[in-house]
Write a structure and sequence with these properties.
By secondary structure, the protein is mainly alpha-helical. The chain is built from five helices and two strands, in the order H-H-E-H-H-E-H.
Amino acid sequence: MLAPEVANAKREQMLRDGYALIENILPGGFLEELRVETERLIAAHEEAPEHRFQGQHIKVAAADNALIKKLLTWEPAYAALAAMGFGDFRPDRDRPAEVIILTKEPGGPPLYWHQDWMWWNDPLSMSPWPEFMSLSYYLTDTAVSNGCLKVIPGSHLRRFPIHDQLVPAHEQGARFVHDDGPDYVQRCA
């Protein structure tokens, strides 16, 4: 359980920067189960060539995998959100509950810059309150040497000049980015 002062600080960070790191949500035994299961799923998956910049991108439905269902209903995660004042965020009830397992092969191309919010012209985008959240679980410690997520703090609140240079991340344009194109990638640094 997050202490109130920690929860408030994480909430302020989420509202200001668009992300917050909350450690120790998954206990060691559950984390190890997830590592084993995701490695099994990754080993059985063959990624399409057009996804070379995304790496392994495996969707797994809760209805098809008991361990994924356990993760998607993990109460300590929802308790942390509630402590931060985000208790009304739950999986989309209109879509099947699923996770996306993302991993990159060593030496593979880095992920291109992209955005997960594309509705900048909608009045909803003016809200200071998050309209969309995702929970990401890192199953191993990460650093620049083995992978990282680079975020532009505050880019969830307003458009940045880079937004105008990006191809749509979740449409066909992003799947066929040219290796030398200006919209290609930024390496983590």
